[in-house]
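On to my pick:
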Amino acid sequence: MKKAFIVELSNKRNIKIDADEVDAVIAGVARGAVVKLRQGVVNPSFFVDIVIDEDRMKAFRQELAAAENHNDFQRKYHNGADLKPIPEMRPLADIFADIKRLN
């Protein structure tokens, strides 16, 4: 299962990140370089740590459990009709997607 993370900053702002952005944050902080992410920009001077995004992980686990429970019920009582697809962790939206200069 993919994980969701939060970059915590000393200015009390947090930036949500996906698992595929963790290495970029670590590399940027090690170089002292600003890192553009899908949900914001990390200034390494304010970097504190990276932690699991418990809220996103909980929401995903609930969505996953609901789909699995539905499918188990459908298999048991309805011969497997109307099964729901098993959800995957969706990547965060890129807030910079429509800004050509930052892409």
